[in-house]
Structures are given as C-alpha cells and as structure tokens.
Amino acid sequence: MSEKNVTINWFPGHMAKARRQMEEQLKSVDIVIELRDARIPDASANPMIGELVKNKPVLVILNKADLSDPVQNQLWKERFTHCLICESTGKSIEKEVVGKVKEILKDKLEKAKARGIKKKVLRAMVAGIPNVGKSTFINNIVKKKAAKAENRPGVTKSLQWIRINEDVELLDTPGVLWPKFEDQNDARLLALLGSIKDEILDKEDLVLFGLEYLKKVYPGAIEKRYQVKEDSEDLIDEIGRSKQLLEPNGTVNRLRCMEMILKDIRGSKIGRISWQHAGE
Ligand SMILES: Nc1nc2c(ncn2[C@@H]2O[C@H](COP(=O)(O)OP(=O)(O)O)[C@@H](O)[C@H]2O)c(=O)[nH]1
Ligand SMILES: [Mg+2]
Hints:
single chain; alpha/beta; Rossmann fold; about 10% strand; elongated; disordered N terminus; binds magnesium ion
C-alpha cells in the first residue's frame, strides 16, 4: 500500500477529488487525526485542512518523532490544542491514542449519556499528506483487529470502520491530502525529506540548503558524520573526498555524494534534526 506515485500527481482535479472525499468522510466522524511529520510540522500540513475540517476537533500527531529533535518535539506539541508525539514504527501507540481521543471527546460522550444513549461509539479518521505515515499509524493501532465491513442503514455505505476498542472506531482508509507545494520553502523541505519528488528541484540546491541549515542550526553534526571541516568552501567536495566517492580520475563524484547526503538526511543519519523549529 503506497501512495508514492500520488505525490507527483496533484493536479487540480486530484485535489478537488481528495477534497470531496474528505468532506464526505467528515460527515461521519467525530474527530480528525491529522498526521504531520515531526521534522517539519508546518510544511507537512495540508494547506486547507482547517477549512476542510471546520469545527470538528483535530488531534495532531507529530509522527516520525524518532527522527526529529526531541527538544523541538516538546516545543511543537505545546503549539497545538490537541497533540501527541508518535513513532508509528515503534511500540504500540493504541492506548495513548484511544485515551487521547476519549479525553478530547469527553463532553460529547457525556452528552450522549445524558440523552440516554448507552453506548456512544466515537469515530475517528486519519488524514495527512502522502508519506507522512498514515498506513503505518493505522497498522500500529489496529494490529490484527479485522477490518469490519458494515452497511448500517443511513450511514455512508462505502466507508469501512475498524473497532479499536469498545468506545472508538477508526476509518480503515486514511484521507490522503495534497502537500504544500506552492510555497517554495515548504516545497523544499518536503523534497529534502522525500515527501515530494525531488526531481522538481535542483539536487545541488537542495543539498546545499540542507548543509547550510545543519551548519547553522546543528553545528558539529556534519563534522561528526563525515569527518570534515564545516567551514570548507566546497562542502560537497570535502564530504565526497572523506567518503571516497571518487571518479577514476580522482575527482569527486558529486552526484553520488549528493545522493548519499540526501539519503543520510532522510534517514536521520546525521542526527535527530528538526528542519522547522517552533517559534520561527
Ligand atoms: N522512522 C519512522 N518512520 C516511519 C514512521 N511512520 C512511518 N514511517 C515510514 O514512513 C514511510 C511512509 O509510511 P506510510 O505509512 O506508507 O505513509 P502514508 O503514505 O502516509 O500511508 C514508510 O517507510 C514508513 O516505514 C515513524 O514513526 N518513524
Ligand atoms: Mg498509505
């Protein structure tokens, strides 16, 4: 299950379709679980999510938090009304997420009870841009629970819900939303972390941008990873030499070097880096 190809195909028709689907799905949910990439919490938001969701509560998940700066994770968390820091590829997050959903919707549960509804089941849907970890997040929570097909009269037929526990159901397919590729800075961050295709940007520009940021915000990180001086005039060249990425004639194979750096950045091999800091 991969939406990787979707990332390059967000033309207006697709956006309109994603929007329509989201609006339809929203009718039957009590809460939206919006996944963001903890390394770029702002750039990884959908530009229209607020407008789409309107007045339903949103639980923001800072996902891939194992890759981002732990100090920044905490600072970002405070920025959102409801937020959890998650590593969907790690241990089970089911209890934490379900507990949070119930806490956010406490009033709704109490109101239902007061109206005589014995068992109000809360419904949640996951949404986010491609590659942010929606499928991984859902699998972490759902584990082996079977997707439950149901066609209750009056309830949108095509939607399938998975019962997480006695109080909460999750829509089994996430809402895939388009990324913020219109803003140059956001697009660059998304490309740097591989959330949109990097072909749309010049690879060297992308790598230089990444290296400049690391030098400025995480001094020492490049030196530690590649054993080079960070103030070198041509850092790509220095790194290529240090890592022996050379052509037969002894010059640095810059393309290979840049690809290695991008891979290291995406896999957090240079350290746990937050590419957007809270409060900036
Ligand atoms: N390190 C790390 N990787 C993650 C996490 N969540 C998802 N991923 C990885 O991110 C990639 C995209 O995940 P996927 O669930 O397919 O994203 P989707 O397109 O939103 O459904 C996969 O390689 C996942 O293993 C996380 O919390 N930490
Ligand atoms: Mg997916």
